[in-house]
Amino acid sequence: MKLLPVALAVTATLSSFSTFAETDPLDNIQLDDQQPLVISPQSDIPDGIVFSGYARYGFHFSDDTQKYVSADGQLIGNAAGRLGNESNGGEFQFAKGFVSDNGTIWDVVVMLEHWGDEVGLKKFYAGATNVFESQPNAYIWAGRDFHNRPQTGLNDYFWMMNDSQGAGIKNLEFGNVKFDMAAVAQVVDGGGTGDSGNYAITSKLHGINLTDALDLSFYANYGFSSKNTETDKDTQTCTGTGADKQCYVDDIDSYQLALELNHSVGMLSNKFVARYGNNVDNNIFNKTEDLSTLLMQLEGKLVMSNQTNIEYLVGYQSLEDKNASQDDRANYSAIVRPTYAWNNIHSTWLEAGYSLVDFDNQSGQNDAWKVTLSQNISFDMDSGARPMLRFYATVGDSNTEVDLTRGETSKQDTFAVGAMWEAWW
To answer: What is the pLDDT along the chain (425 residues), one digit of tens a residue?
Structure first.
C-alpha cells in the first residue's frame, strides 16, 4: 500500500491530499515540500515531544465487485482521481529536538504507519545542523526515513518513492542554490532491520530561482546491488561443486533523472514534472532489466476567490520493457476538481477524472472515468484546511480490453458512497 504523507509544491495552500500540518515550521520538525523539514541554526526547537501525522479512516460502500475506479494497468497513481476513490490508513510521528552547549541542533524522529493489517516502523532517524562553520545550514542525518519521494496530489502519485535507510546531507549551499545527497539502502522485505542488497546514491539540486515566478529543481539517482540481493537469491548462477562452488548474481544498475519546475503568479500556481527511468519506474530499488519509463505531468491550481478554487492535472507516462513487450503501454490521465466553500465550515467539491491505458503491442485499450461529489465539514475555509469530515458519492466506469493477469475482458460500472475523516497535524 502506498504511503500518503506529503505536501504539494504546486501551491502555497494545501490541497486535498496527504501531508502533515503546515503550521509554524519551527514548531513542527517534520515535513515540508515532500521531505522531512530540515532544521537550521535559526530553528526555535520546542520543548517536549512533537506529535504529528497524517490519517484518513472511514467507510466505503460500493455496489460492484470493484470498490474503486481504475483502469487496469494504469501507471500514474490514482489516475482517474483520488477523491472518494481511496482506502484507509495513517502515519503517526513523534519527534524530539535538542540544543547542545556546543551550538549544534539535533532532532530524533520516529514514525509508525498503518496501511495494511499491521502497524510498521517507517521512520527512525536522527539529524544535526550547525555542525560546520562554513556550512551552518547543512543538515546531516542517518537512519530510516521517507526519502526522495515527491508527490502530485490529485492522483496521489509519488513520482519518486525511494524510502530507505542510510545517511546523507541536505542544504549544502552554493550561493542561493542548495544541494542534497545521500547513500541509502532498501529495507529488507517484510520490514526488518537489515538491507535487502539494493542500494542507491541520490541527489537533488534545488532553490534554482529562474525568475520571481519560476523555480527549478533537478533529481539524479543511481541504483545498484550487492551479490546478496534479497530478490536475486533464487536466481543465482553457480559454478563448481563442493568447496569450489561459487554463486553470484548479475548486478542490474538503474538510474532516474527528473526535473521539477514550479510557476506561481498571482492566483495561479503550476508544477511541471518530467522523469526518466532506466531499468526502473518510480522506485530506484525495484529494478527490471531493459525497462524504460517516461513521465510528464502538469498539476495546478487557480484561486478564483476566497471561496472558489479549481485544481487540475494532466499526465502521461510510458513504459517499455524489451523482455516483455506485450506490457508496453502509455497511460494518459486528466483530473479536474472545482471546490466551493459556503462558509468557513462547509464546502462542496466535485472531482471528475479520466484514465486511458493504450497498449503498444496488443489490440485494445483500458480506460476508466469517475465523478465524485463530496460535501465537507472542515477546520477552515481553505481547501487545504484539516481536519475534515467528508461525505461523498462516486459514479464511475472501467472498461478492460487487455487484462495483464487473467487475459479476460470485462466492464464494470461503479456506484459508491462513503464517509471519511482526513487530517494532517
So the answer is: 333 332 222 222 222 233 333 333 333 333 333 334 678 888 888 889 999 999 999 999 998 788 999 999 999 999 999 999 999 999 999 999 999 999 999 999 999 999 988 899 999 999 999 999 999 999 999 999 999 999 999 999 999 999 999 999 999 999 999 999 999 999 998 778 999 999 999 999 999 999 999 999 999 999 999 877 765 544 445 555 554 445 444 578 999 999 999 999 999 999 999 999 999 999 999 999 999 999 999 999 999 999 999 999 999 999 999 988 889 999 999 999 999 999 999 999 999 999 999 999 888 899 999 999 999 999 999 888 899 999 999 999 999 999 877 666 889 999 999 999 999 88
CA distances from 1 to 55, 143, 284, 317 (A): 14, 22, 17, 21
| Length reported for the chain | 425
Instruction: Tell me how far apart the alpha carbons of residues 337 and 341 are, in angstroms, rounded to a whole number.
Output: 13
Where do the DSSP E strands lie in 153-290? 157-158, 164-174, 177-187, 195-209, 214-225, 237-239, 246-248, 254-265, 268-278
C-alpha distances out from residue 265 to 15, 213, 303, 339, Å? 18, 6, 11, 20
Domains and CATH numbers, the chain: 50-227+247-424 (2.40.170.10)
Tell me the whole-structure pTM to 2 decimals.
0.86
Residue with cell 501525522: 53
How many whole angstroms separate alpha carbon 253 and alpha carbon 41?
38
